[in-house]
Recover the amino acids of this structure.
């Protein structure tokens, strides 16, 4: 039984399940059934992917006689696909598990259930496709299903807008990819990936292909400035779907870019990496800055996805650079860093979205300004959410740190690059990366602190209660994985070796052999990290300290009202809110990033007016790139529309003019 | 001149004509509707039989691989449309928009139209083809005006005037072709027989051919609805009965397109004449982008989809203009898919208009809530026509864009631009109609949903799997279109 | 073909073009109709001449139709309509007569140029005939475009059609000419009936083409 | 085996040494500052007494505080201690030095800050929030600056492994480099900011609106406060020893040095600490505290310097 057939079978089963779901949605327990089935299927697919990845099997191919005639539907499972299948289905399985419990709170079940398995199938098929047609069909199918899920709560204000922007950008991206494939396929129409690998593309055309791939995949992954749909669409969907879209679907986009840039397209040129690096760096910083300015928890998470995509693309860009200058082992390091971060991000971003969903169901609120103090009402959720926050803030000993650390190591090797542009660019990108990491920490101090800590700001937050056990199970599983991937990164790095080997023709030194299970990307003398020991140190020293103090000194505790410098104020309104927390950072970065303006209207003493603070921020990307297009289209269409209200005589004159014009052409014809 | 052998060709002509004559005197509208359906089914069966044993071609009639595709497609859509209309008109009577007298006329005209279109498709004589297309135009004019409302009359009048001028131009083109042929083929009928023309076109006077093609392109292009000759199309679609809108978009445009294709072949075969491709490609792109922009301003649901028909006609003409095996294949496929999808959409729109009692987009909201089946089939139809997989239209657009981009990058970019523009407009309107709080008006529609299901099913199937015989057939035709 | 027959047909065709110009120039409805009748007469003459020259009997039918229908029936009908509608006022042109004339000249020049590109082995008569026919067609269309009044639009359409008939008749041995001329007569008849119908149905208070666009699709 | 044992012993010694010396350094700085201000100042060992007293007091915890509030001090202390323990103070060949490189050490300090900020938000008072948000703002610039400095160091020494870096710095191969100078200045600025010293923050103030670090820990008392204080002392020590081990590695005992060398190294290290403490005191007394929103520029300067250093290094590398 070969893995590919198994995977395809699983996907077919998922599609069948989505048909079943149309009926099941009416049943009382229908939701639980569908999600349980999806969980089972995804676990199966996960097993298949892992088996191929860890078993180091040779690539498997399979062609079905459907799809585009005279080419058929080709599927292929190699290390890269297998890795992403594992990532996708791990996230999918967790989301399904989570949804078994979470789904109960869904009101429009018939609008969610049928599309959920279809969405999963779409993502899986995209990863397995081995010709342009199949790939695009699966890709668009994925977009379509997720669009339907975004539109599930179509009565909510803004949902329609979100869905519209989303599907439009998705289609735009698909067209870009289509053009890229068209260039790769050439006029003869060799649409299979095998043929594309074999064929050679002219240098200029190759550059164009890369740009198109960057646009196509970037618009799905959320690269600035193509990210606008993401913070609208991800929060609009039900939380388990948001987790999938943010944590997993963006990875499918990353896969698309890797597939085209590293596999289908021949040897890279150095300036490609410049594009990827610059975009990645900007995306990372802008994404986290956007995130810091949000007060809607799910929007914050969605924007933060943009940042992580930036980090991933930095890794990929470095890999391109090193590959261009033929340094396979270093390229392998960079690529591994990028892919590992993709995996890590899928873990903690899903986890965080699960937590956000739990909070939303418990309180009915997504606005952090109306939450607070939840750590007392939902301690377990708070705990796992905290782990997610630590991991995503790239703090040891969790997994987020490992991949960013690897990326830094790759950047530190950039002086070996002969190209000048890259010499200058890379440290700059490194600085941007460091900046985004620091800001991310601030962002998640805010996210966790405002939502779970402090005193409840609304009755809703006060009445919150712990979420159901399925959701908790999913969250705990991912929290555990975050820790494992943080303390034993060697396993995951080695698992990625074959994929890197296929793509850049090199690999990192095997990590398993190294003593004390630490990792050393190049050589131990140069740099090494051991999450396990760090964890042990922290735990032991903390325990030591606690034991020592409790034994030798007092362990008495007295509860008392907060001191607050002697002016305690009972009203929870005096706490810092999401916006006030971000205010200093807004003052530092907002001025140029968002044209942030703060107007303070402080009435004179004795004046009874309330004091007013107005903060205006503009989304420059939207204002400068998208609004003009919208306006232009509207304008032009209005002008052209006048043509629809002419008299018959005027229409005749148009026909007449056309005739005369053509006759003139004939008369002037050489 | 030898009389044509009595065979399938004569049958598909005689049957509708006879039925039309009968229906003209049948008072009971239910009976006539039934007769209409049966006769259309029979016509379809006959047309399908062409695949098995191809009728011989004579001086007057010609059946080759190219027009079989058109004939069969036409017959099929005409059949489903007749099924739809049979269940549709009852409601029209109920609301008093039509009287039994009108219906008698309507059914007679329906068959007459069928006859005219079949004639145009199988005619081997360019003069005969011209007569047939004029007849088809006149019958549709009559049907567009059948509601007798000022709007309907105006639409019909517009259609009539523009159509007649188009007809006149086409005739002039036809005469020119004859003039070009006469020195070579001698006087008399031969100068108009397409097969004979084809045989010796290379010796024709190129300048005359060029001139002829200009007139033919404009004349028949008016019928195809290419911008800027499209003015009649939206109103004609919007004001006529919905089955007729479906027939117009799904069939009549194809017939005119067929005529254009025939003459394109003629010109391609003459080395000195200007290549018709660029002209067609240009007109195609212009229509596509123009229609895409117009879509944003539409307030009437039927006009919306009428403009989308213009857009797709543009795509098809563009594909044929670009030429080459891939593009031609894609063009044929796109034409087929468009006929099926667009007629399905118009069926759906008919239901919606009946259920909501309005055609104004602004007053149609939340269909997926108030009429789930209807709403979702609208969503499906619009996504199909907007070229999203796994629908057949995506296949053809995929082929068109990719094959063009490898050869004419700029054109392909224009094409992609137009497509995404149109996509944006369609989805914008779709979301408004299909989602959100439902608008008042939840009457159930009487009409049957069978045709919709059939068409969308076919389109979906085509997107996933094209049967090899069909592919081979299309490839053969594509090669023939060069 | 002898020089004489050539000259005659040439003369007649030229006369047709001339009358088209007169139609363009003419801006009183009754006069317009009379001129059109004259043009129809000339057309029938030239068709008849072609019939005689080519020895094609069926062309006599066409000539007869042209004469009977166009030169007699339709003008009378239109006279009655105008009388009924009481619109025997001046025809309002969109552009002045002068520019229209110039445009007409340009169109004739254009059609001649286009035709001269035709290599000369196609016999001269056909070429000249076509040149004239093309100009008549273009002038007729021009007339449709520059006149606001529905009646003159119909007249323009008919003169356009005259050009077609001329071309068809000039095309030696072209089949279906009769059928075509009949078909066109039907077309024209329908047009006129249309104009007439609307009047009787009291739907439009004028037959000015503007009124036909009062609804104009979805303008709201 | 013996080697391992010795290394382990020295690792433990190191851990004890840092925790033992940290309060002394703070005391020294306070004393020196007082002296410079013509005050008598507290005795040198006052910090030890303070810590002991605090540890013995019962801890008062606000009603609205959660378990995080009580766990945070231990985590903060632990991660700071581990970070400090990983810096070669008097000998490079520490057993676990390779378990975390310079970047990891920075990240450890980051986690300490992370939890401290959370603790500040936990009670839900306005001061806690203020402290946390300002701390976050400082960190968001200080950390990148630190990373960039690490870049230039790593580029010079070809490693982010502190032992290797220190060894390289001690070797004659270094020479005098403008990059290192810039890195030093930048590092000093970051150190000042990170430890909340004047001019960035005043560790002695309790004037609410000017405090940052103190505002975060306003609600703490008893043993929790003691731990946090100790952690911040450790942090000061950490930065100082980082600076000295990178920029003044003289006397640093290399990996397989004899016991004697190592003891010598320890002695030298203590002297170096003293000198650094005195310099810090002098620096602090000579300038005034700056407005909170001028701090970003201050730190931005460090960032720019570090970055410039890195670039210059690239240039020189490629010229070489």
């Amino acid at each position: 039984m070969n893995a590919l057939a198994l995977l395809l079978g699983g996907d077919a089963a998922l599609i069948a399940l989505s048909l079943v779901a149309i009926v099941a949605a009416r049943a009382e327990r229908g939701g639980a059934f569908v999600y349980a089935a999806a969980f089972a299927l995804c676990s199966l697919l996960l097993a298949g992917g892992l088996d191929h990845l860890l078993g180091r099997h040779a690539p498997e191919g399979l062609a079905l006689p459907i799809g585009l005639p005279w080419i058929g539907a080709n599927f292929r499972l190699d290390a890269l696909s297998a890795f992403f299948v594992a990532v996708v289905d791990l996230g999918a399985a967790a989301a399904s598990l989570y949804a078994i419990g979470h789904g109960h709170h869904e009101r429009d079940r018939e609008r969610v259930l049928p599309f959920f398995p279809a969405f999963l199938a779409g993502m899986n098929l995209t990863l397995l496709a081995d010709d342009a047609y199949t790939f695009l069909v699966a890709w668009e199918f994925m977009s379509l299903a997720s669009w339907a899920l975004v539109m599930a709560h179509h009565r909510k204000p803004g949902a329609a807008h979100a869905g519209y922007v989303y599907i439009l950008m998705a289609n735009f991206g698909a067209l870009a990819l289509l053009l890229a494939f068209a260039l790769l396929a050439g006029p003869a129409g060799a649409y299979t990936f095998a043929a594309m690998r074999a064929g050679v593309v002219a240098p200029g055309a190759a550059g164009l292909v890369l740009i198109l791939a960057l646009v196509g995949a970037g618009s799905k992954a959320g690269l600035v400035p193509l990210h606008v749909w993401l913070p609208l669409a991800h929060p609009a969907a039900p939380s388990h779907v948001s987790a999938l879209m943010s944590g997993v679907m963006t990875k499918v986009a990353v896969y698309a870019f890797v597939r085209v840039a590293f596999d289908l397209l021949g040897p890279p040129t150095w300036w490609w990496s410049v594009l990827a690096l610059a975009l990645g760096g900007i995306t990372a910083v802008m994404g986290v800055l956007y995130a810091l300015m949000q007060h809607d928890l799910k929007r914050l998470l969605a924007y933060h996805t943009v940042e992580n995509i930036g980090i991933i693309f930095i890794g990929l860009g470095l890999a391109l650079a090193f590959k261009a200058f033929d340094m396979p082992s270093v390229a392998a390091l960079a690529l591994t860093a990028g892919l590992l971060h993709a995996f890590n991000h899928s873990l903690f971003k899903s986890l965080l979205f699960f937590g956000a969903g739990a909070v939303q169901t418990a309180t009915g609120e997504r606005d952090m300004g109306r939450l607070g103090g939840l750590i007392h009402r939902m301690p377990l959720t708070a705990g796992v959410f905290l782990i997610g926050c630590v991991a995503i803030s790239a703090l040891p000993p969790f997994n987020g740190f490992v991949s960013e650390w690897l990326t830094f190591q790759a950047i530190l090797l950039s002086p070996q690059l002969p190209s000048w542009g890259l010499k200058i660019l890379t440290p700059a990108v490194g600085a941007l990366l460091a900046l985004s990491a620091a800001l991310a920490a601030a962002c998640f101090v805010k996210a966790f602190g405002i939502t779970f800590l402090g005193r409840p700001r609304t009755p809703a937050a006060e009445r919150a209660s712990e979420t159901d056990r399925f959701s908790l199970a999913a969250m705990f599983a991912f929290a555990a994985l975050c820790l494992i991937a943080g303390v034993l990164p060697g396993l995951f790095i080695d698992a990625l070796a074959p994929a890197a080997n296929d793509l850049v023709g090199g690999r990192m030194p095997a990590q398993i052999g190294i003593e004390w299970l630490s990792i050393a990307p190049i050589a131990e003398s140069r740099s090494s990290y051991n999450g396990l020991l760090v964890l042990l140190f922290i735990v032991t020293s903390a325990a030591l300290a606690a034991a020592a103090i409790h034994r030798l000194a007092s362990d008495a505790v007295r509860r008392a009202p907060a001191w607050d410098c002697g002016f305690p104020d009972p009203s929870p309104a005096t706490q810092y809110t999401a916006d006030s927390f971000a205010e200093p950072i807004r003052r530092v970065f907002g001025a140029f990033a968002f044209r942030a303006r703060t107007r303070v209207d402080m009435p004179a003493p004795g004046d009874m007016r309330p004091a007013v603070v107005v903060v205006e921020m503009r989304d420059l990307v939207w204002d400068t790139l998208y609004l003009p297009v919208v306006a232009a289209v509207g304008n032009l269409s209005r002008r052209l529309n006048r043509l629809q209200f002419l008299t018959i005589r005027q229409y005749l004159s148009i026909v007449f003019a056309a005739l005369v014009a053509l006759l003139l052409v004939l008369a002037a014809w050489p | 001149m030898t009389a044509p052998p009595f065979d399938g060709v004569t049958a598909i002509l005689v049957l509708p004509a006879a039925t039309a004559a009968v229906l003209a005197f049948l008072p009971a509208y239910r009976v006539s509707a039934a007769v209409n359906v049966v006769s259309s089914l029979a016509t379809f069966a006959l047309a399908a039989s062409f695949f098995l044993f191809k009728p011989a071609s004579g001086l007057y009639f010609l059946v080759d691989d190219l027009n079989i595709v058109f004939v069969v497609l036409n017959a099929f859509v005409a059949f489903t449309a007749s099924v739809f209309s049979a269940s549709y008109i009852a409601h029209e009577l109920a609301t008093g928009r039509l009287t039994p007298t009108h219906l008698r006329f309507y059914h007679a005209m329906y068959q007459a139209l069928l006859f005219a279109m079949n004639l145009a498709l199988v005619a081997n004589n360019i003069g005969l083809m011209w007569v047939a297309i004029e007849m088809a135009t006149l019958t549709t004019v009559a049907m567009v005006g059948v509601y007798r409302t000022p709007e309907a009359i105006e639409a019909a009048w517009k259609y009539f005037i523009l159509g007649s001028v188009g007809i006149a131009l086409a005739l002039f083109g036809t005469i020119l072709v004859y003039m070009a042929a006469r020195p070579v083929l001698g006087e008399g009928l031969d100068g108009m027989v397409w097969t004979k023309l084809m045989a010796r076109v290379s010796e024709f006077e190129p300048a005359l051919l060029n001139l002829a093609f200009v007139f033919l392109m404009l004349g028949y292009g008016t019928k195809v609805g290419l911008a800027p000759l499209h003015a009649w199309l939206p109103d004609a679609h919007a004001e006529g009965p919905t089955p007729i809108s479906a027939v117009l978009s799904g069939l009549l445009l194809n017939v005119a397109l067929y005529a254009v294709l025939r003459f394109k072949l003629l010109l391609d075969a003459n080395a000195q004449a200007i290549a018709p491709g660029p002209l067609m490609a240009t007109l195609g792109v212009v229509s596509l982008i123009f229609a895409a922009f117009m879509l944003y301003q539409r307030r009437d649901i039927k006009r919306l989809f009428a403009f989308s028909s213009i857009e797709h006609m543009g795509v098809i003409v563009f594909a044929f203009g670009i030429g080459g095996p891939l593009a031609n294949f894609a063009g044929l496929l796109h034409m087929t898919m468009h006929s099926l999808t667009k007629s399905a959409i118009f069926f759906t729109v008919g239901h919606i208009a009946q259920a909501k009692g309005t055609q104004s987009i602004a007053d149609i909201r939340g269909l997926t809530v108030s009429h789930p089946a209807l709403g979702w089939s609208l969503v499906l139809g619009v996504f199909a026509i907007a070229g999203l997989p796994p629908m057949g239209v995506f296949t053809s657009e995929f082929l068109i864009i990719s094959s063009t981009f490898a050869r004419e990058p700029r054109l392909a970019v224009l094409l992609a631009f137009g497509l995404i523009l149109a996509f944006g407009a369609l989805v914008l309107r779709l979301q408004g109609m299909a989602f959100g709080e439902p608008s008042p008006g939840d009457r159930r529609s009487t009409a049957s949903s069978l045709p919709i299901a059939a068409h969308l099913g076919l389109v979906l199937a085509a997107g996933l799997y094209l049967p090899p015989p069909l592919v081979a057939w299309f490839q053969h035709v594509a090669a023939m279109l060069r | 073909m002898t020089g004489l027959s050539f000259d005659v047909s040439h003369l007649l065709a030229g006369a047709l073009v001339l009358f088209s110009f007169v139609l363009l120039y003419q801006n009183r409805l009754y006069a317009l109709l009379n001129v059109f009748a004259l043009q129809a007469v000339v057309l029938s003459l030239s068709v008849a001449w072609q019939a005689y020259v080519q020895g094609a009997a069926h062309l006599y039918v066409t000539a007869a139709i042209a004469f009977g229908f166009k030169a007699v029936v339709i003008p009378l009908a239109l006279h009655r309509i105008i009388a009924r509608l009481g619109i025997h006022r001046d025809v309002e042109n969109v552009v002045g007569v002068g520019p229209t004339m110039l445009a007409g000249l340009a169109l004739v020049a254009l059609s001649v140029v286009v035709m001269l590109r035709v290599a000369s082995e196609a016999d001269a008569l056909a070429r000249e005939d076509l040149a004239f026919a093309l100009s008549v067609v273009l002038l007729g269309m021009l007339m449709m475009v520059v006149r606001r009044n529905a009646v003159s639009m119909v007249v323009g359409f008919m003169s356009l059609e005259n050009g077609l008939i001329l071309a068809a008749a000039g095309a030696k041995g072209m089949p279906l000419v009769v059928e075509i001329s009949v078909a066109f007569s039907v077309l024209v008849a329908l047009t006129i009936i249309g104009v007439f119908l609307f009047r009787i149905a009291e739907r439009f208070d004028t037959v000015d083409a503007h009124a036909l666009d009062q609804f104009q699709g979805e303008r709201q | 085996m013996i080697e391992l044992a010795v290394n382990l012993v020295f690792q433990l010694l190191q851990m004890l040494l840092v925790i033992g010396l940290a309060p002394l350094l703070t005391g020294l700085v306070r004393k020196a500052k007082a002296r410079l201000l013509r005050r008598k100042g507290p005795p040198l060992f006052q910090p030890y007494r303070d810590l002991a007293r605090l540890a013995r007091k019962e801890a008062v915890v606000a009603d609205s505080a959660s378990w995080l509030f009580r766990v945070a001090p231990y985590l903060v202390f632990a991660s700071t201690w581990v970070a400090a323990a990983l810096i070669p103070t008097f000998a490079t060949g520490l057993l676990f030095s390779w378990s975390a490189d310079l970047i990891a050490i920075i990240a450890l300090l980051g986690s300490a800050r992370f939890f401290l900020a959370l603790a500040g938000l936990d009670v839900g008072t306005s001061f806690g929030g203020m402290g946390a948000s300002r701390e976050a703002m400082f960190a968001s610039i200080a950390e990148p600056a630190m990373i960039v400095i690490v870049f230039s160091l790593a580029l010079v020494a070809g490693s982010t492994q502190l032992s290797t870096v220190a060894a390289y710095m001690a070797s004659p191969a270094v020479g005098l480099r403008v990059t290192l100078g810039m890195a030093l200045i930048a590092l000093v600025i970051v150190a000042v900011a990170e430890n909340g010293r004047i001019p960035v923050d005043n560790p002695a103030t309790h004037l609410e609106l000017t405090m940052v670090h103190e505002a975060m820990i306003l609600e703490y008392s008893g043993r929790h406060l003691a731990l946090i204080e100790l952690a911040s002392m450790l942090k000061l020590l950490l930065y100082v020893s980082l600076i000295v081990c990178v920029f003044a590695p003289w006397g640093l005992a290399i990996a397989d040095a004899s016991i004697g060398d190592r003891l010598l190294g320890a002695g030298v290290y203590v002297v170096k600490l003293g000198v650094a403490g005195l310099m810090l005191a002098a620096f602090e007394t000579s300038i005034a505290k700056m407005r909170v929103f001028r701090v970003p520029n201050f730190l931005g300067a460090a960032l720019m310097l570090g970055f410039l250093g890195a670039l210059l290094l690239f240039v020189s590398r490629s010229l070489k």
User: Anything to note?
Assistant: The radius of gyration of chain D is 20 Å.
